[in-house]
Every structure is written in structure tokens, then in C-alpha cells.
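User: C-alpha cells for Monosaccharide ABC transporter ATP-binding protein (CUT2 family), please.
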Amino acid sequence: MTSLIETSGIGKTYGSVIALRDVSTVVNAGEVTCVLGDNGAGKSTLIKILAGVHQHDRGSLKVEGEEISFASPREALDHGIATVYQDLAVVPLMSVWRNFFLGSEPTKGVGPFKVLDRRQGREVTKKALSEMGIDLRDVEQPVGTLSGGERQCVAIARAVHFGAKVLILDEPTAALGVKQAGVVLKYVARARDRGLGVVLITHNPHHAYPVGDRFLLLKRGRSLGSYDKADISIEELTRQMAGGAELDALSHELRAAQVDPEASGAASDGVVDKEDVG
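Assistant: Done. Predicted C-alpha cells:
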């Protein structure tokens, strides 16, 4: 089976700054590839390469077996790669259905007499949301009145409706509470079950592990490893995310540096007891 996306030794530099080096992973249809890392790990650089915002300068990027370097986000979108960024790019005061079609509004009429087809817009939006299991009270309500989780779900449904093969989600649960994060993860799983390849960017292993099929760990632009779910536990994933090896080394140093307080005090005094002489 040909992967939807495959990166091999991919890298990106900005002048003398190495933002990404030698990163390899795959995104398959019907699977969730989770990209985990702390701030500055290179997650944003990777998704911008996949989304066509930046071009890689090392390694190989293949989309459905074809080696490619996207010239623009539009080209990535034409290849079925849709990205939902953290800020969602929605217009808060505009209705849900208008945000759903933003830039691709349905029209009726001919030539200069074309007008916005509000009825079709509302019906298609409601149906598309319903197919994803999202039941909104009214698609005419401003999108700004929705919760953060609901807005993420609308963005996911929009990408699915417009034919995305790969859905890239940039920290979709970062600013959400436990309940809302759970709602978003449920729709991530639904997108996966509909056959999309999902790339989930997160710094939270407890959000990634329940829905993830593959985990790519990044640190300072380098890969710490890529694991199938069967090969890594949530405990080990959390440990690596928390810098487990570094913490172990630090703990060892601290234990080695521990001395008896009385001995330490005597050494610092530089005073020798007379009884100890001769």
C-alpha cells in the first residue's frame, strides 16, 4: 500500500539555524500519525513543509508515491492535504455556514447575476456536520459563539467535506479543557475511520496515545524515533516526552553530589580539631 505522505531524511535550515534535520515518517490512509515535541522541537516547521508553506532543502517528500516539493499551500491543498491551524482562521462574527464555505461559497444564477445561495449553504453545512456526528443548534449562529472544541470540529468537518485525503491538525487540544479536548479527539477518530490520513501535532502524549497509530518524537529539530503503537507504551512515550534520559542523568548527578551535611560543614570550615592531631 502506497503511503499518502512519506518523508525520508527531510530537513530545513534558515541561514545558519537548523530547524529540522533527518526526519522520516509516514502517513497512511485510515491512520493517525502523532507528531510530539516540546516548544522549539520542529513540529511547526515539519507541518509547514507538508502544508506547502515552506520548502524542504534536504531529504525527500513523497505524496502518494510521487516525489514533490510544494510551491504553495494551494498546491498542497490540490493534492488533498488540508491543514487546520491553532487559530483556525475563522471569522468570529460570521455564521457557522459562511465560515464552513469561506472562499468557496455556493452561488445561484448566471454570469453577473450570480448571488449567494444561502439555502444550499445552510443545508450542505448541516448535512456535512451531521455526517461527522456534530449536531449544532443553528448553522446561522456566529461561529464565535461556539466553544473552542466545537470550532475545531467545524474546521475538521470542513476539511473532510472539501475532499481532503490528509488532515493536519496543529495543536487542536492545546487551549481546551479535558471535556472539550475529548470531543475534538472523538472527531479526529471519526476522520480517521472515514479513511483520511491524519497528522496530529501535540505536546500532550495523553491526548495523542488514545487516537494515535504512529508516534514521531521530535526534539530540537531532530527525531528521537518513530514508533508504532504496539512498540511503545503510554508510560514510555510520556517518559521520552519529558526528557527521560536527561532526567535520569540529572538524578544520577544529584545523587552523586549528595554528601553528609556534617562532613560538608567541617570541610567548609577548614578547622581541624586538636583531638584529631597526633
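User: Anything notable?

Assistant: The first helix runs from residue 43 to 50.
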